[in-house]
Each structure stands twice: as structure tokens, then as C-alpha cells.
Amino acid sequence: MNEAAQRIWHPIASSTDLPFRHTYHGQLLGREFAVWRADDGYVNVWENRCLHRGVRLSIGINDGTELKCQYHGWRYANRTAGCTYIPAHPADAPARTICNQTYPAIERYGLIWSAEAPVGELAYIEVLSGSAVFPLRGIAVNAPAKLVMQKLVTYQFQPSGQIKGQTATSQLLSSSDDSCHLAATDGAHSTTAVFFVQPVDAGRSVIRGVLAETPADDLKRPVLYHHNQLLTALREQVEQEFSTLPQPAPFAPVIAPPSAPTLPDIDFDSPSPRGRSAPLRVQVSKKWMTALDIAAFDLVSITGQLPTYQPGAHIDVHMPNGLIRQYSLTNGPGETDKYTIAVKREAASGGGSLCMHGQVREGDVLAISEPRNNFPLRRDAIQTVFVAGGIGITPLLAMSRTLHHSGLPQTLHYFTQSRDHIAFPEILGTMAATVQHHLNLSPEETAGQLRGILESYKPAMHLYVCGPGPMLEATRKIADDLGWPEPAVHFEYFKNTNEIDDSSQFEINLARSAMTLQVAAGKTILETLRENGIELPSSCEQGACGTCVVDILEGEPEHHDVFLSDGEKQSGKRLMTCVSRAKSNRLVLDI
Amino acid sequence: MIKLYDYELSGNCFKLRLLMAILGVKYEPVAVDFYPGLEHKSPWFLQLNPLGQLPVIDDDGYILRDAQAILIYLASKYDPSAKWYPTGSPNLLGEVCQWMAFADAITSTASAARLHDGLFYDFDIEACRTGAHRLFRILDEHLWFGEDQGNDWLCSGSHPTVADLACFPYVVLSEEGGISRQDYPAIRRWTDRVKRIPGFRVMPGIFPAGPGPKTT
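The joint structure predicted for all components is written out below.
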């Protein structure tokens, strides 16, 4: 019914309607919007509906980086509208498919413009091409846009330079269904104005006027009052007229359900030999040495909006030399215009860090995976303790920045060799009160510090550790000794240094796919699945990241990973298909 | 200690709880079963307030009724800075009284619509809503031009007054009476500012605002 109108850009708000940390309630052709400006200036126009229970997001909290629903606290990220946190599931990373509908936004002439299904760009308006346009107060009218437009073309006003006069003549320069250009002339004074009519609903509109020139300072207020008074009078007339006409039914916009999660299609004809896809293309917009031996990279998308991430997430980077490596995102909340990663130069590198340090330059294009989060951050701890060793800072930096932004209690302990080894000092400096540096300590001294840090566990405290293997082991051991329960200790290894014996052979029974396969000696479960056309997401493929986890229904696994905690390993309920094997002759897997 | 004869869902009681929370005044709430018990029409309550209306306070034997009157009393007595009820400036004081009267008009329209929808009062709902929209248009225009001059509050000073607290509750609860505030963006911004006053508290139907601009 409104298809033609849905293709056209309309103003939906005034720029001044989006002050710092406010959420505006907009509407266009019956469709409601939650409109908010993030602290980085980005204007978000979203379906006005929380994906959880349908509550209006326009009553939500704009925290500058995310919009939080008032009802159950679901949080959605700047730009992507992807869900970043569900308070009822504090230990889980929300699925990437939980993403609200977004609409395009353009800010021009002091107005915010949007459209449901725009065709083409918002056209430039010649008379408003100067830099000194002057938006008037928007006037909401309880009448259809068409009726308002009919009255507006006869709108009579005084030019700004002759505001007190009464003898101006207004001339209609041009008009369309949704805007008209008028010029008022009184003697030597002349003012050009453009009026847009925003079709809010079948029987509601907003008049949004813009003068081509800003009046002199002392005239601004009289000019605003002048138009406000005249437009208010015009509104009275239109509403009076409309009240005598049959009242149209409100528009009924279709609110599409969020796109259903799609499971990877099983394509038996073309089994994927690699299985690790990298659908995103990013350009290195900035590369710099953030610390001694640590290069940082800003990656911006060249294939549309980057997907939503949560603190703790990592991406696979497919390098020019063919290697695939995992790097944690260090970004703070809502920093959805780029991904920032950091890479330490490893002397004993398999080639990944050398390639990133030596070959990859600003301007280069890289293929990356979508972010995955197997190291999710709880935001319900009474106190969160982060322990970072060296380059292990990367996921913890993203986490610490998130808690810092929300003012949640935390301490970030950062163990490095020297001041020169501190990565992202400029960011850490902005949250100095939460960061404690520990420099140049021997393993024994480190253990001593950790005992001090971890000595007073209380229920609902949480510990997150990332760093070199020996430090991670030591931290977990000390936490265990000092009474930290296993579910309160969260860790991420860079790599799996376990020696993996893959000489066993066993049968796997895929309960949901109704297949039985033989895993041969020297093959992993993951490889066996892929050779038989079963796609499974994977990332590090060495038992460190947790991406290829599956549930076990029957049988006894033999764990070789460093992702699961000891308790999880003992329970025998999950395994990593990239490294783990079977102690029993047969495993029944829930895939 | 002050006794507040109180009903949790009453916006007029809430504005007193709000001012006392902001000023750090301790009080003891006395729950009155307004609905469905109609306790505010019971003989014991009519002795306190023959009008049969909430709220009423008893400050060490001094009994006062009428939400706006009580705001003035509490601010005058417990705000030594005299900012909430600015007796030092005749112009400002005049504005405060003007908007306190406006708050009464909001009560008789927006609050009435809410009582109709929520508690089944027999009111002319269309008249209530039309009246509220008329007031909201006036309020939105006033606040918009105020913002344009750098004014955050209803009255012209740089500090909020009891007038803001008097008008706030039934404006922000208006949707419970079927009165949308979508067409009043300046009102919506002002409600954010009120919610960010240090000491602000909520009631059912009134949500908190997030952290706003840093104030000095």
C-alpha cells in the first residue's frame, strides 16, 4: 500500500532530537523506530522492538555503545544491532543470529533521514546546499501528510530579515508529494525555506522546515517563534479540516521475525576439504607497533558491516602465506566500525606472526572469519579479576573495557616483562584505576603475586586468565588451592602443546545425521566428518579454541584439548572433534 | 520522623518519595490500600484528609495534604540551599507556582486517564486524553524553546525545582492511560534529565535512565 513511499527517503527526526545518550521514538509510514546516536556519532535506526519480548527499544537505555532493553536487559551493539549480552544467560555468548532489524540513516540539513527500502541515494537539494541551513522546530500534526502538504504550499511567512513586517509575499518555487520550496520576499529581504512532511502514519505527520540561511544571532529566536506560531496555526486548520473527514485506519507495517538461525547445509556432493570459511574481506586501515614485538592492526570491512562481536571473541585470519591463525578482538563495546587485533612476533613462529609482522601492510586486504566467542564474559560478577600474561592481554582487554564502560567492579592484572612490553598503553591509561601492572617478575615472583591477588575468593567472583601455558597452569593451580571453584575460573590458551597420540581407531555414530563412520588412525574426528560431507565449524584445529565442540551421547572420550576444564573432561559430555578421540570402541555424537 | 501516607502506584505519592530521596530526608511510609480497598475513603483516613485523597504527611504532628503543597513544605524545610523552592527570586518563584498549577491540570487529565485504564474509574476517557495532549503540546513547546536557550528545566534557573518533580510523574506514566509521548520529543528529553538528577528513584512504570553527560 505504501510501497512507493517506502522507497523514498524521509526525515524522521531532527539532529537535535538525538542528544548524548538519548533514545528517540520515531515512526515512518506506521513503522516505529528506536533512533539513537552512539558516542562515536553513528546514528542507529532500528525496529522499535526488542527481539526477546517485543518491548519498545525507544524506552531503552543508550549507554553510548549499546542499547539496553528496559525489560530484561538484552543489549544490542551500535551499528549491527546484534545482541551482545543476555542477563538471564550470563555465561553464554548470544548467537550471532539474534540481530535486530536496522534501517539506513543519513544526517543532512539538520535532519535525520531514513527509509524502509530506499531506492537510490538521498537527493541533494540545491537551495539547501549552503552550510548555514537553519532547521525549524518540527511540528507534529494529527492529519495525513497529503492534507498537510496541500496547506503548506500556501504557507505565508515573513523573511528572516523582516520578521516584524506583515507585507511579505510567499512564492511557491516547487513542490512534490512530500516537500515544497517557498520563498518569502518583503522589500529587499528574502528567505527561502524547504518544508518536508514526514508521513508518520495514515493520519499523522510531522512538518520539518529548514531555512536556507541561518538568521543573524539576535534574530534566531524571533524567527523560530515566528514559524512555530504560523505552523501551529496551520496545524489547527488542517486538524480541524481532517476531523470532519473519514478517519483512515492506521498503517499496519509488517514486522519481519528475526531471520531464523540457519544450520550449515549438508552438501554431500562437495565435501569441504578445509571447512574453515572466511566470508569477510577486511582492509588493514592501520598497523602500528603497540609494544615491543607486538604489532596491532585495525581491520575495516570492504564487504559491508562487520558482524557483531562480544568481548572474548576471536577471528580466524587467513594470511597471504596460506596459514590460518586466531586472534582475539581487543575492541571495546560498540566499536563496530573496525576490528582491532594484536600479534606478537614469536621467534619460534610457525610463520603466522612473521607474516603478520613482515608481510602484511596498511592497505592490504585479508580474508577473515566471522567472530566466534568461546570465551564469553559474565557481567553479573560481584568482582571480576583478569590475569593477563604478555599477549594474553588481547581478549581480556576487550572484556575489561566492557566492564569499565558499564562501571562494573573489576581489576585487570597485567604481567609483562617491562614497560615497553605493555600493549595498548593509551587504552589502559583511560582506565588506570582498574589496571595493575606487574613488571619483570620471575615465575616464582609471579606465583607469589598471584597468591596475593587470588587469596580472598567470595561467591560470585569470577577469574579470567589468558597468557602463556605455564603461567596459565600456575594461575589455575593457585586458584584451585585458594578455593576458587572451577566454574569461576575461565581461561583461554593460545595453543595446545599436548602431545597427541592419534594411533587409535574407533567408530562414531552420528545420532542426528543417522550415519556411522570409522575414524582411522592418524585421522581426526573432524577430518572424518568432513570427508563424509558433514560440515562443522572449526577454527584453531588444535584443541585450544573450542569452536568444533560437540556433545557426546554415549561412549567414553579421550580428551586431548586445552579448552575444557578438568571437571568438564571428567563428565565426558563434550569433546573437541579436532583432537579428541575415544577410549571406548564407539562414540555416539549429537550431530 | 515524617510519616508519608502512601500508595506505591500513585504518581502524587511518588513525587514526594522522590523529593525526599533527593534531599536525603528519612521518612516512614504508611501504606494506604487505595485500590481495591478504598482505604483513602475510610473514616480514619478522612479524619486526616476530609478530601479523601493521597498523599498526606505527618511531620511530627504537623499534618499536610496535597502533593504540590507538601513538595513546597518539604523543600522549604529540608533544602537549605533553597534551590528546589527558590524563595530568593520572585520571578523564579512565580514560574514555579505557575507550573505547580500546570501539574494539577496534568493530574486531572493524564492521571485520570491512567485511573480509567488501570483502575477502572468511570471517567470520560476521550476528554482526559484530549486534555492531556493539549497540555503536552504546550509543555513540549515550552521545553523545546527552553532547550534552545540552554535551559534544562521547566523554570528558568539552572537548577531543577519542585515544579519539575510536580509535573514529572503523570507525564512519564501517561502511556498507562493510553497517551503516547511520541509526538513530544522535548518532553522525552526532559524526562531523561529528571531521571538523571542525583538521588532519583523509580516506581512501577517509571524506568531509570542510563548514565548521561558528566556533570561538574
